[in-house]
Amino acid sequence: MTVFRGPPGRPSALVAWWRRRPPLGFAAKVSIAIALGLSFVIVWTTLSPTSASQQISTERTYFAAEIAEPPTASRNRTSGSHGKPHATRSSRGHKKRHSPTRSHSHRPNATPSPDATASKTNLTEPALRPDQEPNEKGPEPVTETETEPEEEQEQEVELSVPEDNGENTGKAPKEEDEKAPELDLVDESSELDGDEEDPEAAKRNPSKEKKKLPHLFSPAAHYHWKQCSAKSGHHYIPCVDFDADGSQRHHERSCPRSPVTCLVSLPKEYKPPVPWPERKEKVWYENIGHPRLASYAKGHSWLNRTGEHLVFPPEESEFKGGASHYIESIDEMAPDIDWGKNIRVALDIGCKSAGFGVALLEKDVITLSLGLANEQTDLAQVALERGIPATVGSLGSRRLPFPSGAFDVIHCSECNIAWHSNGGKLLLEMNRILRPGGYFIISSRHGDLESEKGISASMTALCWNAVAYNSDDVSELGVKIFQRPASNEEYDLRARKDPPFCKEDQNKATAWYIPIKHCLHKAPADIEERGSEWPEEWPKRLETFPDWLGDMQTRVAADHNHWKAVVEKSYLDGLGIDWSNTRNVLDMKAVYGGFAAALSSKKVWVMNVVPVHAPDTLPVIYERGLIGVYHDWCEPFSTYPRSYDLLHADHLFSRLKNRCKQPIVILVEMDRILRPGGWAIIREKLDILDPLEAILRSLHWEIVMTFRKDKEGIMSTLAVRLSRRIADAGVDARPTDAAAFDPDDLPSVPLLLLVLPTHDAGAPPPAAAFLARWLAESAADFRAGALLLSRVRFAIFGVGSRAYGDTFNAAARSFSRLLRELGAVEVIPVVEGDVDDGDLEIVFEEWCGKVLRVANGEEVEDGANGESGGFDELELEGEESDYDDDDDDEEEEEVVNGEVDMEDLAGKATARRQNGKVAGLPNGAENGAREMVTPIIRTSLEKQGYKIVGSHSGVKICRWTKSQLRGRGGCYKHSFYGIESHRCMEATPSLACANKCVFCWRHHTNPVGKSWKWKMDDPLDIVNTAIDEHRKMVKQMKGVPGVKPELLAEGLSPRHCALSLVGEPIMYPEINTLVDDLHRRHISTFLVTNAQFPEKIKTLKPITQLYVSVDAATKESLKAVDRPLFSDFWERFLDSLKSLHDKDQRTVYRLTLVKGWNAEEIDAYANLLNLGQPDFIEIKGVTYCGSSATSKLTMENVPWHADVKEFSEVLASKSGGVYELACEHVHSCCVLLAKVDKFKINGKWHTWIDYDRFHELVTSGKPFKSCDYMALTPSWAVYGAEEGGFDPDQSRYKKERRHGTAALKG
Asked: Where does the record place it (predicted)?
């Protein structure tokens, strides 16, 4: 990172040398005049725009009146060297801009001039535009240089420049290119900067060689600069003003054909802006002054020129009575407009004094003033000088450079815009950029807005609601407030569909050079779409990341935390920036607005620029209550010279690659828009940073501070050195990138060495993210146990920067903790390397020495050889209790010695009945209003990998889903019933249960109860959120070794829902509505009930497959295994089985065999078959989940597959031929029995499900039976098949057992 400060000024006139020549005769003068006239005609004809590209212009007469023509000077065309970007590994840096104290007149004026040994290219003659003929040259800018009389002109050598496909020509791209970039972002900010290229992409395309590109800026070049033509003046905007003389303006943005490489001069009496907040009330007139502005000021009392200042009296504005009164009148008209709360981002069209925006500053509203390009007084420049957000744009045929649904309010006062003309296209553009439900406020001195031709008809066609109309006597303005519809219902009711709805391929998100279409974009309807809901109130909005972001929420949060740390720990105090004189800030490559958010506490505003070639994250920035625009940095920015006090560029140049023909124009533009003495912070690669420093020095920018890191890349260097040290010592080791390491192999690694950096907010680097997630899930999963990695020894070397405070080497410490929790032994305590201390190399060498001694079996002084790094299991509950709060159950006590089960009350607090109410309930709830999932339960379940949905539901990704995403086989339901495991969502609408089974996977961290007594969520909300959370978990599998992209894409659209995650789904009162919604989405349902709610089974609508858990066959064993809460549990159990008999759809008994508990009751099980007569019987061995205070099961209670098969065969024989062995899944230790008369047709089993047929039957509403949607079972799934139920289309994965040392680098 390097910090620059700009020069204090630049000469406003050019110093030139010339030789005096003898006077010419009259005839010679006449001949020259004629020749010059003919030349002018020829040049004008050649270079003037064609009819297809002509733009309507407006006159700027003040330029000619203000600036005198300089004396004639000799004109030389010099050239310079520059190259395309060179992709290398390097690290990031920051840069600052400081100004020297030398005189303006000594600043050289020239174009780049390289050394004799350097390659050269002509900056004034770029490559041809796509629309130019080969023999046609773009117009060359008229520039002047200082030359000695005897100095010879350098010979020019041209270097070919790649075509840019018209991207930087200022010409609108073709309409078919209208496509929004995907929001698939890379991690661009980290504590350490490694290779900027995507390592995963390199692995996916190992055969594809990287094309070596030249340097972005040639290190050998020398630069001398010319000033822009004096006629262009001190206020020149290249893509707005005509380049020739600055006296006219383009009606719409149109950039010069030749890249602008000249420097804009300063006003003669330029002075640094007045400090904020005085700045908003007065500015230096000479900084912005010109004749037209002076004339305008004379006619307006709220714009006074007093001495050297232009003063804005706080009690006066363009609104009579003051802007504050004007806003108060709007408040009275529309009380729903809550400034600074639900209204945060406003657009003010037709900038005058920016009084509207200044008044709203007091209400915490950020108002972007849009100065129109055809406005001659340059009041947008005045607003910027005052420190008020402003930009320059055109209301013409193209979209404004804002995303759709960006602004909460759009305001237009006396802007004299014919909104209804041309079919109301401008209003259609306002409709695009206005947030659904947002307000459009328009005011005029004409009093009655209805009299304006066509305005009412246009608003009606847009279905905008007229909220209020008022004629204010004080301001003498007629104000009308419209509101854009928040939904599509009003659009659908239109009698006349004009304007029509836009086609799906007409993307409303794209805005750069996109023409406005005569069509209406629909309001977002899906909850997953941005704009379907209004953002949170400010300032909560800044740090609230909405659900429509999906898996980007974590990225936005990480970006926010990263920039908060950088700004607080570095920018505010460590760079020497005078923040008291900093008001206007430009982030040249914003991502999620993290930099702007980090500065929200300062008295600054930030214009966030999202480059058009980058992922489209500008909607996220506006959603957070910030402002920004789209821009292509190969072109000049739409603002005035000297607009900003600070520029921030984070890897802007390295991301440009070879996009710009002449990247030098970006630095020229930075010099134009940054005020003298302003600051620039540049974070870049070293191969770009070094030549960039030389260029900025040639512009007389001062380099205040430079912070660099190892160009080779710290992490790769240390990992390679460690591998070499170990190899030299003769130790068998295999260095592996963490991204390519399969965590399933970790238990077989005897010695694990990790070199690990810390990235954003203490997170591990992206390459180690999956390994970190695996460790965290395993440590929280009771099934894994604390001895999973008991044979693994490990040592970790962390790399980070202590400047990041609490997150310094947080990733290394986290990995160490998780490994120890899984039983691994830490042979050397974590060593935390600091890149800023200067002794990283020494510390690393010492650590390597200890590692080698450990690898050779030696002891180390600070090691932990032989000592377990595990941890004692955390008990989540106290003594067991059968507490229940039903009043009519006398067998249950209300309070037992003041102790209560945590599962029952979802907390540790004691509950006592007082006056018929339960006192002391968590969350302050009473009698059924409390939430089921309290913070204690939430924490416990989330540690186990659950995603909590609402207040009582949950979803979790299944290990078989992960397996089939990698093509490594599906679960037993795939083998038995043909589900696609990678498209199966495991969920529950009720985390509560009426049992406390001894084999519960969750060790009773979920609540229990006999009836629904909690707050109830809407079933549709549960389904929507569950699917969203499931998709997020599936998306996290992206980049995991072995995951197949096509299966990952399918996995994002679940087609099956296993309502069997945990708890009792059927307890949820709205279970039928929830099931209907799943079926409506063509998601099949597999619902499991624990046989304690027979009435619920009877009223249940058709389910794809309904299960009843038959955990035991006798009353005594059922009480011992399930430990039910109901005193009449056995009767409820039997009634549940009988209720199953009346169901027409597929039904299943699910038996979980526990050796020593229920596996010996085979005769009793056979007697239960006649009660429910299920279609299928699933028999599965219990899964060992580890021991706890609530379960004393051991591995001795887990049956082998042979035991399950034997039990199944005997049970089938005792059924008297009603059931036979149909399928098996050896891996799950599971066997399926099926009814012969229903599912064995012509000797072949039909246990699979025709899911499409099932959804047809459900949709029809007619009665149907289980045989109506059955399908043939494949041979590999049939009982006794050689495959054992493993799908041959999948790849059987067997863990590779390694016995060498594994060295991983993050």
From this structure: Endomembrane system; Membrane
> 1000 with 1015: CB under 8 angstroms?
no
Residue 32: how many CB atoms within 10 A of its CB?
A: 11
pLDDT in tens, 292-339: 787 787 777 778 888 889 988 877 777 877 888 889 999 999 999 999
- Rounded to whole angstroms, the Cα distance separating 486 from 488 reads 7
Which helix (H) or strand (E) is 584 found in, with range?
Answer: strand 584-587
Strand partners, 752: 794, 1302
Burial (CB count <10 Å: 0-12, 13-18, 19+), residue 774? middle
Flag whether pLDDT at 932 surpasses 70: yes
Distances (CA, A) of 442 to 141, 317, 325, 404: 42, 17, 16, 20
- The pLDDT of residue 11 is above 50: no
Q: DSSP readout, 1088-1118?
A: EE-SS-HHHHHTPPP-SEEEEE---SSHHHH
Please list the residues that pair with 947 across neighbouring strands: 955
Alpha helices in 436-586 (DSSP H): 455-461, 489-492, 552-566, 572-574
Q: Residue 407's closest CA among 384, 440, 383, 379?
A: 440
Cβ pair 341, 542 in contact under 8 A = no
Could you tell me the CA-to-CA distances from 1108 to 996, 1064, 1149, 1166, 1214 in Å, in that order?
A: 16, 11, 5, 15, 20
Q: What is the four-CA torsion angle of 542, 544, 550, 551, rounded to 10 degrees?
A: 80
Does pLDDT of 601 surpass 70?
Answer: yes
pLDDT at 71: 32
What is the mean pLDDT of the segment spanning 805-814? Answer: 86
Q: How far apart are CA 33 and CA 234, in angstroms?
A: 31
Q: Measured between alpha carbons, how far is 1070 from 1101 in angstroms, rounded to an integer?
A: 11
Q: Read off the tokens for 800.
A: 């980070």
d(CA 330, CA 321): 14
**Number of residues written out for the chain:** 1306
Task: Report the 10 Å Cβ neighbour count for 112.
Answer: 26
| Pairwise CA distance, residues 745 & 747, whole Å | 6
d(CA 671, CA 1130): 83
Contact 105, 272 (CB under 8 A): no
Q: Which two tokens stand for residue 1286?
A: 């493993």
Contact 69, 230 (CB under 8 A): yes
1105-1109 and 1146-1153 as β-strands: parallel, antiparallel, unpaired? parallel
The residues with which 631 forms a beta bridge, in sequence order, are 611
The pLDDT of residue 632 is 95
pLDDT tens for 436-472 read 999 999 988 765 444 465 677 788 888 999 899 888 7
The string of pLDDT tens digits covering residues 1209-1262 is 999 999 999 999 999 999 999 999 999 999 999 999 999 999 999 999 999 999
Contacts of 1 (CB under 8 A, 6+ apart): 92, 93, 94, 95, 681, 682, 683, 684, 706, 707
User: Minimal CA–CA distance to 799: which of 53, 1303, 194?
Assistant: 194
| Residue position matching structure tokens 């000033």 | 227
pLDDT tens digit sequence for 389-400: 999 998 989 999
CA atoms within 13 A on the CB side of 681: 21
| CA gap 355, 996 in Å, rounded | 67
- Residue 866, Ramachandran bin (φ over 0: left; ψ between -120 and 50: alpha; else beta): left
Report how far residue 368's alpha carbon sits from residue 352's, in angstroms, rounded to the nearest whole number. 12
Among the residues of 858-981, which ranges form H helices?
Answer: 902-905, 935-943, 959-965, 972-977
Mean pLDDT score of the chain:
75
1222: helix, strand or coil? strand
